[in-house]
Amino acid sequence: MMPHENVPNPVWIIDDDRSIRWVFEKALAREGILHRTFGGAQEALDRLPLETPQVVVSDIRMPGTTGLELMQQLKTRLPSTPIIIMTAYSDLESAVAAFQGGAFEYLPKPFDVDHAVGLVRRALDENRKHIELPVNDVEAPEILGQAPAMQEVFRAIGRLSQSHATVLITGESGTGKELVARALHRHSPRSAKSFIAINTAAIPKDLLESELFGHERGAFTGAQTMRRGRFEQAEGGTLFLDEIGDMPPDLQTRLLRVLSDGHYYRVGGHTPLAANVRVIAATHQDLEARVKQGLFREDLYHRLNVIRLRLPALRERREDIPMLARHFLAKSARELGVDGKRLTEAAVQFFAAQDWAGNVRQLENVCHWVTVMAPGQLVDVKDLPPEVRGEGGATGGDGDWRRALEREVSARLARGESDIADPLTRDFETALIQKALQHTGGRRIEAATLLGIGRNTLTRKVQDLKIDTKD
Questions:
Q1: Are 325 and 363 in contact, with CB atoms under 8 Å apart?
Q2: Rounded to the nearest 10 degrees, what angle do helices 92-100 and 148-160 cross at?
Q3: How far is CA 72 from CA 88, 102, 120, 233, 331, in A?
């Protein structure tokens, strides 16, 4: 039954998926929130002359008019109406486009119903106004991820897209800090200007000051000409300072001065230069600990730590590993001009169970190795690099079987399996008994003694576990 025509200001739900509309109808009715549902964007737009929604919840990909197109039209007519964008396509572009278009929140499917209702209540309470910013058509670097931890990163990039604030990106080596910095730049008002990156740990201390601030001719031996530094090159744009935790103390002082008063001098120069630059810094180190150790200036730390964005380690987003592996295999094949390799299901699960100390960078390197070195188009575990399989570069010793067991447990959990203890225990006991019997030539009494169990127990387990004792 349709709501009465005179009921004012309902919440609008727009989705071509009837089940999604049904879930919202039941949930909002239970909460006593007035609502109206639509199967498409045009249907909602046709209703607009008759009714003004308090909040709009819309799918992003629908036949005909998309959720983003709908949002653009609604923001023109109803600039203060909060819009929550839903999508099953968990990618950076959707998040950035949604926030730049003025979305109140970005809700990836599948979602928790209580969480969705909570967002609607927040939107109703706050009725936040947003500034419309056109979607940037420049293609951003690939940042893939459907894990909740990556969704938080995408949301942050979207929210920061209209900001000039200094950002500190933290995370282990190889997690993609520079990719995020580039995305922040490309989706910012500074995108038309330069993005300049410098790894402060990779440049000798004696050269770093000149690299950052430039130098005048004759400033030091060998300075035959004036040189513009990275701050000048990034004028009007973004300067990305990677591995900021390794910056020498004297340069920390100079950087602090630039961030504080917005001016700097070339080495050997006497004329101050204005720095219209957004600084994004990154580190894999614990800066708070380095501050306590006296290795990093506390005042600089607070200047850099205006907005902190933590990137999760790959082991914290294992559900993304299969997708990332497929992406990197396809990318390597394109770059090398060869047919792409495919992973067997066993190899995919093996990948997902690894800890990946080098994170996404290590995974990409392994996929490149596989593209070049693995025989055949279908790649199994045995075709992976020895160091990934735990051979050749492994430490050996008693911990190896435990790590293998841990990987297997992680793989099964990643697949969503439950009640895993019993089958794993059976596999463990089968391996123990088989190897003990092989060692004793099938003599059960001796095998039982070596295992520390009774002969009758061994016999019962051989039967229960259906162990072949013919070998």
A1: yes
A2: 40
A3: 20, 8, 20, 35, 34
DSSP symbol at 260: H
Secondary structure class of 161 (helix, strand, coil): coil
Residue corresponding to tokens 């067997």: 344
What residues contact residue 329 under an 8 Å CB cut-off, 6+ apart? 340, 341, 342, 343, 367, 370, 371
Q: Which residue segments constitute the domains of the chain, with CATH numbers given? A: 11-135 (3.40.50.2300), 150-310 (3.40.50.300), 314-414 (1.10.8.60), 421-464 (1.10.10.60)
pLDDT given at position 223: 65
Cis, peptide link before residue 110, omega less than 30° from 0: yes
Rounded CA-CA distance 28/31 in Å is 5
Are 230 and 198 a contacting pair, CB within 8 Å? yes
Chain segment 266-294, per-residue pLDDT in tens: 888 888 898 899 999 999 999 999 999 99
394 torsion bin: left (phi>0), alpha (psi -120 to 50), beta (else):
beta
